[in-house]
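Still learning. Any example?
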Amino acid sequence: MLRSFEIALQFLTTFKVRVEPAPSLQEAAQSAWAFPVVGGLIGIILAAAYFLLHEHLPSFLCAIVVVGLWAVITGGLHLDGWTDCCDALPASVSPERRFEILKDSRLGTFGAVGLVFLLAVKAGAVAQADFQPMLLFFAPLAGRAIMLLAVYRSHRGVEGMGALFLTELDGRMVAWAAILGLGPAIFGGWHAILAVGGAYLGALLFRRFAESRLNAVNGDVIGAICELSEALVLLIGCLRW
């Protein structure tokens, strides 16, 4: 269990974790149950940063720092997938050409707009005067569980890291990830449950859209689903009823 957590921490964050022997991508997939645990750790750090800063900085500046810290901790791992999907999925080209766009390291116009929009939604939510800091905990926690749930048993390509990851993704591990990542929302009340449920629905719709455009799910789509889920948890959590 400890090795699985260390692998997940190394795989999903920029924390310097030395895992010996070096894990393979297959082993990373087999450690998927620990992804929400790492997400919870990220959430604790973000919530702590918010509590430390929001009394001493203007709300929007505090939000920018917290969202920036979020990107630093994760190394922009899933942001890259989000921007690639924004460039490739809307393009009026063949699925083969879309895969070529996904592999292109250059940032296109749609990718840049998508990145700005995503970060603006996150920062705008955190900047709300009545923002509930618990959402900073639930967003990365649930995001990594939703990411696994949404892509489990989805159509996958024949090559690439994403295809290899999905091949090794075990149903039992996904079930544990769901329990660890979505279960805590119960303690956040109906607002948190609604936010997590809405994020999961949004992730499923995005996956189906990606499959309709690519005929498969790859690593970029998996990362984009994580980012979308996090943003939706914050956005829905800020809705006024």
In short: The chain has one domain: 32-237.
